[in-house]
Write a structure and sequence with these properties.
The chain is mainly β. About 10% of the residues lie in helices and about 40% in strands. Among the domains are: about 10-70 and about 130-145, no CATH class; about 80-125, no CATH class; about 230-268, no CATH class. The strands form four sheets. Strands 1, 2, 3, 8, 9 and 10 form a six-stranded antiparallel sheet that branches. One zinc ion binds next to loops.
Length: about 270
Amino acid sequence: MPIYKYKLETFTETRHIEKICKPYTGQRIDAQDGEALPQLWGIEVSTPKMFHEGSKKIPLPRSGEIKTCHKCGGRGRCKCTRCGGSGQFRCRCSSSSRQKSRNKRCPACSGSGRKRCSKCSGRGRKICGLCKGEGRLFYFQQLAVKWKTLRSQVVSDPLEQELSLPLTLLQKVTGEVITMDGDVTVQPLAGFADVPEISDASGRLIQEHQMTCGPSSHILKQRQTVEMIPVAHVQYGYRGKNLACHVYGLERRVFAPRRLHNLACSIM
Ligand SMILES: [Zn+2]
Ligand SMILES: [Zn+2]
Ligand SMILES: [Zn+2]
């Protein structure tokens, strides 16, 4: 019995709304005409090429709003967190009695007893990190769209596969395409009744892929493929011993239970 590989690919579009806040630098605000914001799936987005993954962000019309920055109260500057707004620190020397008694000029503060705060350069204030000094924030919503392909596959394991060839290896090679079927959603393969593993996998994986979809994710296209993977059993003699290996897949990979001898390679 030949070895088959069943592959299901599901191309999905996922959408969600992101709330964004940026410093206000004169962004355009749409007229608030009282119209409600568009629904998640009501927004028109041009569809990319099928099975080509990617993403896109689209600002929602009429969602823009300007607000005073809550972090700095609109001033554009905040109190320096390191010095607490004073712009300076007490130098270590001012508390050290030993230094004072010697009456030497402290090199760190030139004898002033205070040191400038390096974080705010002595100003005591810093540009607000949230509004970047603008004092106002621009809030808006955007639609984030992601296109992804889910991929699952199953390799049939015929009972008479007296080849000790691990199925995981067969999953990595390609075979000859026997059937390929693509639609918005595909139906479980019925024509593979003689290989129940393939028709079962088709039904099961189609259901699994459908379950990953929900209100935020839609299927745009599905594709199911059945390939037949060629496997050749090769026997050869080497130094009086009978050895065997397998050549499998259109890539003609070689699998030998024991270390492969150079001789086997020449068969290819
Ligand atoms: Zn400071
Ligand atoms: Zn000092
Ligand atoms: Zn601010």
